[in-house]
Amino acid sequence: MAEKSISIEHDLDNLRDPVLGDKAALTEVFDNLITNALKFTDKNGKIKVTGYEKMENDTLNAVIKVEDSGIGIPHDKLDRIFDRFFQVDHDASKKYPGMGLGLTIAKMILEAHEGSISVSSVIGRGSTFKVILPIKKIGGEIETNT
To answer: Does the keyword Nucleotide-binding apply (predicted)?
Structure first.
């Protein structure tokens, strides 16, 4: 991002298998997460998108993290960050305008894909949003659910 000189790095090489789902909806999820990271990361900040596969309970999952060096989210607000119309604080919403719907929509889309989203954050150091989406495999072949 030129005007803020934010560096964006990505490492998705460890995602070898495709996630099955609605491409437009899943694109909206990651567009929202990256847009938020850009919005809440100050000048000369850093955003990193990483992905890997992890087996859990007989399901191969894609795990994608969007990390930023932004302003962070107070610990006492983390449990409400996915609530509709929720914004961390009134003063921040003046500096960082938005409706408070993006993360709610992202969570709904991910849940419709049998996935999940979580967040960890430290004030003044940034936030990490972790998305988990199932890659269904049977006998080494991707199950298409058709």
So the answer is: yes
Q: Kindly report the backbone phi and psi dihedral angles of residue 109, in degrees, each rounded to the nearest multiple of 5, phi listed first.
A: -65, -45
Strand, helix or coil at 138? strand
145 compared with 89, residue with greater pLDDT: 89
**pTM of the predicted protein model:** 0.83
Answer yes or no: is 1 within a domain: no
CA contacts within 13 A on the Cβ side of 133? 25
In 3-45, the DSSP E strands lie at 7-14
Residues 6+ apart with CB under 8 A from 139: none
At 50, which helix (H) or strand (E)?
Answer: strand 46-56
Q: What is the CATH number of the domain that holds 133?
A: 3.30.565.10
Within-domain flag for 59: yes
Cα–Cα distance between 146 and 137 in angstroms, integer?
14
Domain that holds residue 83: 7-137
